[in-house]
Amino acid sequence: MNTTANLGKAPIRSLVLQLAIPSMTAQFVNVLYSIIDRMYIGHISENGALALAGAGVCGPIVTLLTSFGTLVGIGGSITMGIRMGEKNHKKAEQVLANSFLMLSIFSVLLTVCFLLLKNKLLMWFGASTATFPFANTYLTIYTIGTFFALMATGLNYFINCQGFPLVGMFTVLIGAGCNILLDPIFIFGFHMGISGAAIATVISQILSCIFAMTFLFGKKVPVKITFGQYSLKVIKKILSLGFSPFLILATDSLILIFMNTVLQKYGGASQGDMLITCATIAQSYLLLITSPMIGISGGTQAILSYNYGARCVNRVKDAERNILGVMLIFTTIMFLLSRFIPRYFVLLFTTDPQYIRFSVWAIRTYTLMIIPLSFQYVFVDGLTALECPKTGLALSVTRKSLFVISAAVLSSFFGAKAAFFAEPVADGISSALSTVVFLLLINRHLNKRCRMPVKDM
């Protein structure tokens, strides 16, 4: 697929596969890299455990940083996709110009703020006296490369939304692949320890950034990066659409911190640390499922926003059905694999029999409702792509709230182990709720779009 024209003309089923598979692959490789990265850090001689803990403390902060790229990338790409569907090239170009400006401004502001506040942030997110030096080293180097991280993350959405999923996939693969290759060279070959891991990450992000920018400044894309046409109205529109996925991503870290607190409190001195370790392993496994799910639902938003802009209601509905079908096939396969392969995954992290048994149980518990979760992901991202970000945000916040409440209540009544059931409880209830809300809203919302005068768009 080479041009955006395909978004409005190509058969929906093949179009969904063309966008979903590369995006899903890219997300999977990205998560796989993160896991391998932690494995390398954990094997640093003498202080591998402390270095891994330090990198773990930086994880939520790094997620918070990159979520600003998602804020602009999703909000801007959806807005641009709608304008392209309306055949309004000038407005689409304006959206990309304003998005590029925002990414630049956020990069500078975040770099300065995080460098000034990193010591306090690290202590707030769980650094100890022993792990602080490692966490501080990693975060300082990573923060210096904020510009490249945000640009690589944010600009990739604009590549995908113009109908170039393979290019978008390569943007991610270049960074992840280089990181996997450079990590052992800098960590072990140059004996740089955790600073080597951070430097490898920044170099990889620079390469991804250069690739994405070169493509969007080039001649192959219908809508290129330009300068000028800056508008506060356009910026507000981008931020309003991107705020929902931004908040979802930014608060994920807080959920993990809350879960660790609950496990430590109710697990006590005898089991707290063990439960947290097993939860970390289980959450790493869950990312191998949920990140490709994000790739499927997020990577196909371009189809929805483009055809929504073009008022092709039937193509929007057909796309949602096909996206859901792909998602259900993927989650069903992963659910079945989760019954058989968890032990092999856990062995990558630990050889302790107690840890292995509990981690395998935790993974199987976490994935109990992974198939119904397909509806939550597809419908929430679908609503966001169709200019209903507030509804999508409300549904996402509901899921996170259910998780927090379930973890607190279950552990207080049935002990720390019961907190692991918070995931399937939240997934099951929120998926049912999202399905009902989507079915009640979608026809009315699409019909309203068809009646909307062109001048109001």
UniProtKB/TrEMBL annotation:
<feature type="transmembrane region" description="Helical">
    <location>
        <begin position="48"/>
        <end position="74"/>
    </location>
</feature>
<keyword id="KW-0046">Antibiotic resistance</keyword>
<feature type="transmembrane region" description="Helical">
    <location>
        <begin position="401"/>
        <end position="422"/>
    </location>
</feature>
<keyword id="KW-1133">Transmembrane helix</keyword>
<keyword id="KW-0472">Membrane</keyword>
<feature type="transmembrane region" description="Helical">
    <location>
        <begin position="95"/>
        <end position="117"/>
    </location>
</feature>
<feature type="transmembrane region" description="Helical">
    <location>
        <begin position="137"/>
        <end position="159"/>
    </location>
</feature>
<dbReference type="InterPro" id="IPR002528">
    <property type="entry name" value="MATE_fam"/>
</dbReference>
<feature type="transmembrane region" description="Helical">
    <location>
        <begin position="166"/>
        <end position="188"/>
    </location>
</feature>
<dbReference type="Pfam" id="PF01554">
    <property type="entry name" value="MatE"/>
</dbReference>
<protein>
    <recommendedName>
        <fullName>Multidrug export protein MepA</fullName>
    </recommendedName>
</protein>
<feature type="transmembrane region" description="Helical">
    <location>
        <begin position="238"/>
        <end position="262"/>
    </location>
</feature>
<feature type="transmembrane region" description="Helical">
    <location>
        <begin position="274"/>
        <end position="296"/>
    </location>
</feature>
<feature type="transmembrane region" description="Helical">
    <location>
        <begin position="428"/>
        <end position="446"/>
    </location>
</feature>
<comment type="similarity">
    <text>Belongs to the multi antimicrobial extrusion (MATE) (TC 2.A.66.1) family. MepA subfamily.</text>
</comment>
<feature type="transmembrane region" description="Helical">
    <location>
        <begin position="361"/>
        <end position="380"/>
    </location>
</feature>
<keyword id="KW-0813">Transport</keyword>
<dbReference type="InterPro" id="IPR048279">
    <property type="entry name" value="MdtK-like"/>
</dbReference>
<dbReference type="InterPro" id="IPR051327">
    <property type="entry name" value="MATE_MepA_subfamily"/>
</dbReference>
<feature type="transmembrane region" description="Helical">
    <location>
        <begin position="12"/>
        <end position="36"/>
    </location>
</feature>
<dbReference type="InterPro" id="IPR045070">
    <property type="entry name" value="MATE_MepA-like"/>
</dbReference>
<keyword id="KW-1003">Cell membrane</keyword>
<feature type="transmembrane region" description="Helical">
    <location>
        <begin position="323"/>
        <end position="341"/>
    </location>
</feature>
<keyword id="KW-0812">Transmembrane</keyword>
<feature type="transmembrane region" description="Helical">
    <location>
        <begin position="194"/>
        <end position="217"/>
    </location>
</feature>
